[in-house]
Amino acid sequence: MNPLRWSFRQQGFAGFAICVALIGFAVYSQFAWGLEPCPLCIFQRIAFAALGLVFLLAALHAPRGAGTRAFYGVLGFLAAAVGMAIAGRHVWMQYNPPEIPGCGPPLSFMRETMSTGNVIRKVLTGSGDCGNVDWTFLGLSMPAWSLVWFVLLAALFVVAAFRTRSRR
Q1: Which residues of the chain are modeled with pLDDT < 50?
Q2: CA–CA separation, 153 vs 65, rounded Å?
């Protein structure tokens, strides 16, 4: 069964299921293995949740019109692009760790004491802990795998939204 031949609805539900599984794995690794997420990891989880939500809405709506499918495709690609940017920054920080040894205060403290814009700026400008590699699989760290999955899910959304449909 070729996933590229699935209906828009089936592809949307598949993308949603993948996002849920990825978030589930991240939460499992946090609580079962004790891998505490840095702020960039939390932002990646939020990006996966946003992407999963767009996949779910697209699947539930299952539009027949090319314009509406394209709208979902662009929205899904944008959510994935945000995730790619965050994961890409995280991977870059792992290969080029900052000289400062700390990741800064916890995200909850930053949210209480800073404006949203300052929190985002602080998280994205980096930390030493965000540069640590605590887990690898096949030579890739968790943020690198997140980047791979954001790219694959963006491609899935683009294929699902913009491929021509056969009239049956």
Answers
A1: 101, 126-128, 167-168
A2: 22
Q: Which long-range contacts (CB under 8 A, 24 or more apart) does 41-44 make?
A: 41/90, 41/142, 41/143, 42/107, 43/86, 43/123, 44/83, 44/86, 44/87, 44/90, 44/143, 44/146
As a whole number of angstroms, the distance between CA 20 and CA 133 comes to 23
On the CB side of 64, CA atoms within 13 Å amount to 3
What CA–CA distance (Å, rounded) separates 158 from 77? 7
As given in the structure block, the two tokens for residue 92 are: 């870059």
What would the pLDDT profile of 25-64 be if each residue is shown by its tens digit? 988 988 888 877 787 888 898 999 999 999 999 989 888 8
In 3D, which of 138, 159, 163, 2 has the Cα closest to residue 76?
A: 159
Residue from 160, 161, 145, 146 nearest 83 by CA: 146
Tokens coding 72: 């979902």
Query: Which of 59, 40, 62 is closest to 107 using CA atoms?
Result: 40
What lies within 8 Å, CB to CB, of 59 at 6+ separation is 8, 9, 10, 11, 12, 13, 15, 16
* CB neighbours of residue 138 within 10 Å: 6
pLDDT on residue 161: 77
Whole-model pTM: value is: 0.76
